[in-house]
Amino acid sequence: MNTNMQNVLDNSATSLIGQNVTLLDSSGNMVQGTVSGIVYYANTPAVQVNGQNYPLSDIQNVGNVTSTTTGS
Predict the structure, then answer these.
(1) Which has the minimum average pLDDT: 16-20, 34-38, 42-46?
(2) How far apart are alpha carbons 6 and 20 in whole angstroms?
(3) Cβ atoms of 47 and 56 closer than 8 Å
(4) Domains of the chain
(5) Rounded to whole angstroms, what are the CA distances from 57 to 34, 37, 60?
(6) pLDDT, greater one: 42 or 20
(7) Do 54 and 46 touch, CB atoms closer than 8 A?
(8) Distance (Å) of CA 32 to CA 15, 41, 52, 60, 71
(9) What integer best gives the mean pLDDT of the chain?
């Protein structure tokens, strides 16, 4: 079962290459950028965005995000 879970993580991470993502970094700041690659640390895939590595769990959104405002 562990191998199957690793395969799911690998496939999920690989499909993110080239995608625009929004991440929440360890300082609580939102980071936006394009996934340029996948790296592994602690046997877990992570995405590389803007030259930094982020665990998959930091991803908040995938795709272009447009802000909307409501007016009165």
Answers:
(1) 42-46
(2) 23
(3) yes
(4) 2-62 (2.30.30)
(5) 16, 16, 8
(6) 20
(7) yes
(8) 17, 21, 11, 10, 26
(9) 81
Q: What global pTM score does this model have?
A: 0.73
SS3 letters for 2-64? HHHHHHHHHHHHHCCCCCEEEEECCCCCEEEEEEEEEEEECCEEEEEECCEEEEHHHEEEECC
Structure tokens at 34: 């394009």
Three-state DSSP at 6 gives helix
Helices (H), 1-72: 2-14
